[in-house]
Amino acid sequence: RHYVTREKKNLYMTELGEVVNDMMKQAFPSIVDVNFTANMEQLLDAVGDGIINWKTVVENFWPDLEASVQAAEKELDKVKIEDEVSDVICENCGRHMVVKYGPHGKFLACPGFPECRNTKPYQEKIGVSCPRCGGEILRKKTRKGRVYYGCEHYPECEFMSWQQPVREKCPKCGGYMVIRGNRIACADKECGFVKKREDKD
Fold this sequence. Notes:
Elements: E1 4-7, E2 10-13, H1 15-27, H2 34-48, H3 54-75, E3 84-89, E4 96-102, E5 105-109, E6 119-121, E7 124-129, E8 136-141, E9 147-151, E10 160-161, E11 165-169, E12 176-180, E13 183-186, E14 194-196
């Protein structure tokens, strides 16, 4: 639900995640409390062991939860998350396009909606140059959601790879290399150069 974002090995809370976390603390302080979580785990273990009937747990827990939900629906303010402005210019009206979230993830949309309805796929730069033309390599997705890597200058440059390219050049043939599991390998299978991946981020 876009509450966190992953950068290398680390997870970071998004602006939406921070807002939701603050709202949960405000509306459900007892539920997000670590002591409540620990107690609930003990009760669930007891249910699993047949010591306590699950209906008893629910009957004791549900009234307070229902009351908290009803109060939250009435009292909590509606929150508006500011759109993330991109460096992509809308070719229709000249505005900076903004990042939106849809069922299939991020996409770019013109903030001039509904006057301008222009949208574009969100294309994430990975910091690697295209081995053919020197442009930026972008992380993209097929219509079925499969990740691949292509040049920002497509269709003028048709470079494409299913594996993520890296900056390091092959020491054996000078070609580009890609990530394959816990290894980095030359994209040219005839070259065959492979080495252990030192940075697994």
